[in-house]
Amino acid sequence: MAEEMRIVLRNYGKIAPLKIDDYLTQGGYKSLEKARAMNTADLIAEVKKSNLRGRGGAGFNCGMKWSFAAGAQADQKYVICNADEGEPGTYKDRLIMENDPHTLIEGMAICAYAIGATQGYIYLRGEYPFLISTLNTAINQAREKGLVKNFDIEVRSGAGAYVCGEETALIESIEGKRGEPRFKPPYPPSEGLWSKPTIVNNVETFANIPVIIEKGADWYASIGNPAYPGTKVFTLTGDVNNRTFFEVPTSTTIREIVFQFGGGIPGGKKFKAVQIGGTSGAFIPEALLDTPVAFDSMSAIGATLGSGATFVIDESRDVVDVATRIAGFFEHESCGKCAPCREGTARTAELMEKINEGRGSNKDIALLEKLGNVMSYSCLCGLGQAAPAPVLTTIKHFKADYEAKFM
Amino acid sequence: MVNLTIDGIKVSVPEGSTILQAASEVGIKIPTLCFHPDQSIKANCRVCVCEVEGNRLLQAACAMPVFEGMVVKTRTPKVLEARKTILELILSNHPQDCLNCIRNGNCELQDLAQEYCIRENPFEYKVRGFEKDFSTPSLFRDQDKCILCRRCVEVCSVVQSVNALGLEGRGYDSMVVPTLGKALIDSPCIMCGQCIHACPVGAIGEIEQIDEFLAAVANPDKVVITQIAPAVRVAIAEEVGMMTGEMPMGTFVQGLRQIGFDHVLHTNFTADLTILEEGNELLKRLKEGGTLPMFTSCSPGWINFCETFYPDLLDNLSTCKSPQQMFGALVKTYWAEKMGIDPANIYSVSIMPCVAKKFEAARPEMNDSGYQDVDLVLTTREIGRLFRMSGLDFSRLPASDFDSWMGKYTGAAVIFGASGGVMEAALRTVYEVVTGKTLEDVNFVATRGITGIKEADVDLDGTVVKVAIANGLANARKLMEQVRAGESPYHFIEIMACPGGCIGGGGQPITKANVKRVERIEAIYAEDAGLPLRKSHDNPEVKTLYEEFLHEPLGHKSHELLHTHYHPKNKKFL
User: Fold this and answer.
1) For the stretch B302-314, what's the b/e string if a residue is b when 16 or more beta carbons lie within 10 angstroms of its beta carbon?
2) Which residues in chain A are closer than 8 Å to B45, comparing Cβ atoms?
């Protein structure tokens, strides 16, 4: 029986978010103090050893990323928190920022010390304007207490573009340009904001840092799945009894997420599919539910862990209709920079509408598959590469539903 | 050096090279659309994707740096399917009117469609149906054809610092549009036409006026005369399948007679004249404390730029009209009188490397002959089309010579076609006028070449004149900011709007890379070196013009016909 384990949500409900003394009483900013007593190489080695992997979706080893920025020579470096939580159905970052903003600030400050940055940014989702004052108040409190010496954080609000969750598009947006991704390499740790070495980590990633420093890398590395240790916050939506959030070790299976924590399907209906990671996540059928949610095990079944958003649909739902709506979402959110995404998302949406309205054929399905595959390895950024996943996986697992649409 | 393998072939390239560069070293051409050799890497069209061993994702060859031991495959089934699908996607909303397109036969997308055997497109054909923008007299935009490579945006912003083009909308609704979505004429566009060269397809082109020309030729009442700009000859060869500079002047003149011109004259004649007027104007300003530095005024794109962005510096502009407009004013006065032709019947056509010249000819300032001084401007490309339409084989065509009066020229006029040429030509004359000595070495090499900003100090018998030359308007802007700040050390500044000068003008054969501009520059100086007369004041016909008609540089008649004043554009976006 899987159990909840709270690391990033450890202070949830226990402290008043904007009483810094509450946070300090819980041991807050002790990790920053401890980190500052270490030399930066040891500090980065510790983070690397914990095997904490980015919680934003790409799953890159966090300490490794930091080491690249630390090793880069530059007169200025930056730490950016990606709080552009744009995946529909995801609100884990909001939970952390709303309930424990200091844990984010502390995590960022530790990173800044490790890589030698003096300026940080929190790039906040445009739909979270109510968090601007929360974050700014917390930043001021930490500043007034002299806790974040030599490091300043500015909150930047996004303007609603989904693509700005992609780290280089986010950087372009901070620079005041169109929110469009850059080609990589160079990667942000060597050339990021204003062409300076930059670490971009997700809110949840930063929130893990103070605990890793406090309890040690070995402790953290032993939690959950060894290849992707620690915990993950899940947010449940759709046809599930408990539409809620929880934080579990990464060894937890999808079945446990949906049926144990989620309480199963309401109304005595049968499970149809679950989409994990956000809108670009794969649709997973019943047969694959015993997969652990860790990064690599999810990759192995052609799925992603992504943001941890978990969207459940029951047998009464029209999976083709759902995938059609998602295709429309990506047509709307493609930035338009690269040809396969700009044209491909539009054509995918067009073909899905055609099928959904009963005008399709097997030829359209074959074209969708070819187009989806090409997009998945040709597009400039993660948005275009991941956009076809819902279509491709629903075709793969629910082809009969597609064929049932043909007239 | 970095060692890698491309399609089984080992290659060593300098660190920092891209896959695209490494592949070309071993003779493997990777297709591109957004790539431009003189621009930043964009990696947005994705047709150059390749497989890199160990990577699930395909990598854009234009952007991906090589690394030691890298194994690249450029034509696996996965790669070919990706490229073909991307081309199909782009073509699915690209108008399929290649036969009517101004870039038919000279289109990067058309070439790729051929190379990748695109026959039936599986995607539904869906053209957006935007209205074409014909608002300027120089160039048009066809939004439907735009493939969003952004090369025009970069040339307009980075090379020209004009920023008339930008992006609007997102995703499938993304568009390259003139400033604030206005018509091109209401944007800061200075009509240099560099975007035409940057465009891989037919989304931007010159306003083609071949029909107007054919109508004039067909009209028995019209005497159709032409002037040829200095930069045209070296480039016209490229339009008819010859090497740059390879077409002899005599053959070119014969070609022009064949397509219907009654008289073939040369802008070079008024280029020499410009030197006498402008050289004397400079000396007058130096002597009498006039506004300095003086700027050249031959380049109409530059004039538009100055009127738009530096209206406060218009007094620095030489009052000389461009050679095209001096020619236009003289042909319907001096030449008409000399030839006994009623100027009302003269149809004056200029052949220019430039699209801004079309705008210049239509300026209200340019009617001093009592008529519109220049009736029609055809670009080098349009003349190329007329040559092809006429079925001329230039390898066999017998030579012909220019008509007399306004057909003679010196090497000083020829070099007007390259950046630095006007300056060098002026120095050749000014030196002899000021010092009274013969200039032994006429070559002022410091003024030559495609470098963005060049400068030189010229000793005129003890008086040092400081000069600067800029080509490309982002470079001009640097010099203008100095002048505006009162910190310019120069007396005389030559500006050409287009990179490399007129040889790289917006009306020249489609010029993707700057190396082609350099070739044309070399051809220009080779022509100058081979001419018997190389100083403008030695032009015998110009001497006769002064004796018979103008009497003296900057005299009364000159002011009436050859000089003008420009006015601030007062565009609201500034």
Assistant:
1) bbbbbbbbbeebb
2) 338-339
pLDDT of residue A57: 83
Same domain, A297 and A327: no
Beta strands in B325-462 (DSSP E): 346-352, 376-379, 453-460
Please identify which of the residues B53, B81, B168, B365 carries the catalytic annotation.
B365
**What is the pTM assigned to this prediction?**
0.95
A107 and A165 belong to one structural domain: yes
Residue A7 lies in a domain: no
Q: Is the pLDDT of residue B246 over 70?
A: yes
Number of domains in chain A: 3
Residue with tokens 């050679």: B323
Percent of chain A with pLDDT over 90: 95
Contact A336 B174 (CB under 8 A): yes
Whether residues A196 and A230 share a domain: the answer is: no
Concerning whether B455 is annotated as a catalytic residue, the answer is no
> Do you know the residue count of chain A?
407
A218 and A240 belong to one structural domain: no
Instruction: Measure CA of the first residue to CA of the last residue in chain A; give whole Å.
Output: 46
Q: How far apart are CA B412 and CA B405, in angstroms?
A: 18
**Residues B81-118: tens digit of each pLDDT:** 999 999 999 999 999 999 999 999 999 999 999 999 99
Are A340 and B78 inside 8 Å of each other by CB? no
The amino acid that residue A68 corresponds to is F
Q: Are residues A139 and A198 in the same domain?
A: yes
CATH of the domain at A161: 3.40.50.11540
* Residue B445: Cβ within 10 Å count: 11
Contacts of B167 in chain A (CB under 8 A): 178, 336
Tell me the C-alpha to C-alpha distance, in Å, between residue B493 and each of B181, B302, B480, B482, B524.
34, 12, 10, 12, 21
Percentage of residues of chain B with pLDDT beyond 90 = 95
Q: Report the C-alpha gap between A22 and B251 in whole angstroms.
A: 91
Give start and end residues of each alpha helix (H) in B346-472.
356-361, 380-389, 411-414, 421-435
What confidence tier does B573 reach under pLDDT thresholds 50, 70, 90?
A: low
Pair (A165, A279) in one structural domain:
no
Residues A209 and A97 in one domain: yes
Identify whether B365 is a catalytic site residue.
Answer: yes
Q: Cα(B384)–Cα(B5) distance, rounded to whole angstroms?
A: 43
Residue of A393, A239, A271 lying closest to A320 (CA atoms): A393
**A244 found inside a domain:** yes
Domain membership of residue A33 (yes or no) is yes
**CA nearest B163: which of B148, B178, B151?**
B178
Q: Which range marks the domain in which residue A372 is found?
A: 319-403
Task: Write out the H or E segment, with its range, that includes residue B21.
Answer: helix B19-25
Coil, helix or strand at residue A65: helix
Q: Using the 3D structure, point to which of A222, A254, A283 is the last residue of a domain.
A: A222
Smallest Cα distance from A375 to chain B, Å: 8
Phi, psi of B178 (to 5 degrees): -65, 160
pLDDT band at A58 (very low <50, low <70, confident <90, very high): confident
Across chain B, how many H-helices and E-strands are there?
A: 20, 17
Of B496, B573, B572, the C-alpha closest to B194 is B496
pLDDT tier for residue B264 given thresholds of 50, 70 and 90: very high
Is B318 catalytic? The answer is yes
Residue that finishes a domain, picked among A198, A222, A246: A222
CA A235/CA A257 separation, integer angstroms: 10
Q: What is the pLDDT of residue B461?
A: 81
Mark whether B199 is an active-site residue. Answer: no
Q: Which domains does chain B have, with CATH numbers?
A: 2-90 (3.10.20.740), 128-206 (3.30.70.20), 211-561 (3.40.950.10)
Q: Check pLDDT > 80 for residue B574.
A: no
- Domain with residue A392: its CATH number is 1.20.1440.230
